[in-house]
Amino acid sequence: MTALISVIPIVLLIVLMMGFKVSGYKSAMITLVVTIFLALCAVPAMGIIPAKYADVSIFGITIWSVVEGFLKACFPIILIIICAIFSYNILCETKEIETIKAQFIQMTSDKGLLVLLLTWGLGGVLEGMAGFGTAVAIPAAILIGLGFKPMFSAVICLVANTVAVGFGAVGLPATTLANQVAASGVATPEELCEVATFIILQLSLMFFITPFLILMMTDRTKIMKNISIALFVGCFSIVVQFCCAHFIGPETPAILGSVAAIIAMLIYNKLFIKDENPADEVIVEKKKFGLVKTLKAWSVYGLIIFFILISSKIVPPINELLNNTLVTKFDMPVIGNTFKFGWLSNAGLMIFLGAVIGGLIQGMSFGKLMKLLAKTTINLQKTVVTICCLVAMAMLMNNTGMTNDIAKGLVLLTGSAFPFFAPLIGSIGTFVTGSATNANILFGKLQATAAADLGLTNPGTFFGVTGNETNWLAAANCAGSEGGKLLSPQSIAIATAACDMEGQDGDIMRKTMPFAIFWILMNGLMVFLGLHVI
Questions:
Q1: Which of 108, 140, 110 shows the shortest CA–CA distance to 122?
Q2: Closest of 479, 264, 490, 482 to residue 392, by C-alpha
Q3: What are phi and psi of 465, to 5 degrees?
Q4: Which of 256, 212, 254, 247 has its CA nearest to residue 233?
Q5: Residues 112-149 pLDDT 10s
Q6: Are 174 and 250 in contact (CB under 8 A)?
Q7: pLDDT tens per residue across span 336-390
Q8: How far apart are alpha carbons 33 and 31 in whole angstroms?
Q9: Radius of gyration of the chain from its Cα atoms, rounded to whole angstroms
Q10: How many helices (H) and strands (E) does the chain have?
Q11: CB of 527 within 8 A of CB of 476?
C-alpha cells in the first residue's frame, strides 16, 4: 500500500501529459503540488521517511527538498539547455547553418544514413562528452534546420539517446554506480571495468536494434538496406565500446564508440551507397566549400566539442584544476545534503564559451550575442518551469523515502524473478529524476542489497565474461535507466524546447512509450539470461 501511494506522482504525471494532454509545464506544476501534499500528509503516516530524517520536521524536509530541486534544475540542467539552444540560434542568425546543412547532405545521399550520422553518431559523441540533454537538443535542432519535421526530430533524437547514456558525461553514471555498490564505497579500477563491461553486455542487442529502429523511422521502404547498415555500424560500435569498457573503464566507451560508428557510416556510404538524390525535405544545393568557409561554419560546434573535451577527465590536469576552482558549496539545512556546482567545470560553460567565440568568428558582435542569449532564455521560460518542478518533485520523493519505497515494493512483489525487473527500477529512477546518474545514486545500492537477499553474490560467467553476480545485477540499474530516458519528462522538455514544440510533451511521450517498453523488456531479458541461462 505504501508503494502504491508513493507511485501516485508518477502515475499522475503520465495521466496528465498522455491522457488529458495537459502541457508539460502545467503537468509538472500540478504534480509538484500533489507531491508536496503527499509528503506533508501521507508520508508521516506511512512511516517510510529515511532513518536519518526520523527526528526532523516533515515541513522542513519538504521545503528544503524543493529548494534543492530548484538549484539542481538550474545548475547545470537548465544552463546547458539554454546554452545549447543559444548555440543553434547563433548559426541561424549568421546563416552558417546553411553551410552545415549542405555539408551533411554531401556526406551521404541516403536520408537514413544522414539521420543516423546526426543522432547516433554526433549525438553519441555529445552524450559521451557532456550529457545533460546536449545529445537531444543539438542534433534535434540541426535536423529541423535540414527540413525534418519537429515531431520526428524530437522523437528520433530521444530514441537515439539511449545506449550512450550510461557512459554520458565521461562515464559519470557508470562510475557513480560502481562506487555505490563497491564494498569500500570507492570502486577499484578493476571494479569500474567490470561494471562498465556488464553494462555493455546487457545492452549488446540494442547496439544493433536501435540503429535499425532509427533507420526504419526515417525510411521504411528499404528494410534490407536498413538491416545491413545497422549490423555494419552496430559491430563497429559494440566492439569499440566493449574494448573501452573492459580495458580502460567507463570514461570513454560512448565517446570512442560513437566516433567509431561515424567512421563506420562513412565507410559504408563510400562502399555501398550509390549517389542518389536525397528526399525532398532535405534537398540542399550541392557545392564545394573551402577550408576557411568550413572552419567558420563549424566554429561554434567545433569549439564546443573542443572545450568539453579538454575540460573532461580525458585531460586530467585541466579537469582537476577546473573542478577545484570557483566551486559553490551550499549545505542544506534540515535535510543535510550539500549542493555543489563548479562554475568553471560544468558543460554549460563550455557550450557557452564555444557558442560565443564561434559567434564572434562568424561575424556577430558581443552585444548582439548577448541580446540573442536573452531572447533564447525568454523563449524557454516554460521549459525552465517544467524542469524546476520535475527536479524538485524528484528530490522530494527521494528525501521522503517515496522513490525508495516504490523500488522496495517491486522487489517484494517479484521475488526470485527480480533480475528480469531490475532494469525497470533503473528506468523508474531516470523517469523521476531525469538523470541516469541520479537513478544509480537512488537505486544502485538497492540492487546490490536485492542481490544479497537473493543469494546472488558469487563469481559467475556472463556471456563469456567472468565477474561478480552482484555487479551484474547492479549494472542492470544503469542499463535500465537508459530506457527511462525515453519517457523522462525532463528529457522530453529538452526535446520540446529544441524543436519549438511547447505544449506537445504528451504527444512526444505517447510516441516514445512503445520504444521505452520494448527497451525495458529487452534489458530484463538480457539480465535474466545472463544470470540463469548463458
A1: 140
A2: 490
A3: -110, 130
A4: 212
A5: 999 999 999 989 988 887 676 778 888 998 899 888 99
A6: yes
A7: 888 888 899 887 898 899 999 999 999 999 999 999 999 999 988 888 888 889 8
A8: 5
A9: 22
A10: 28, 4
A11: yes
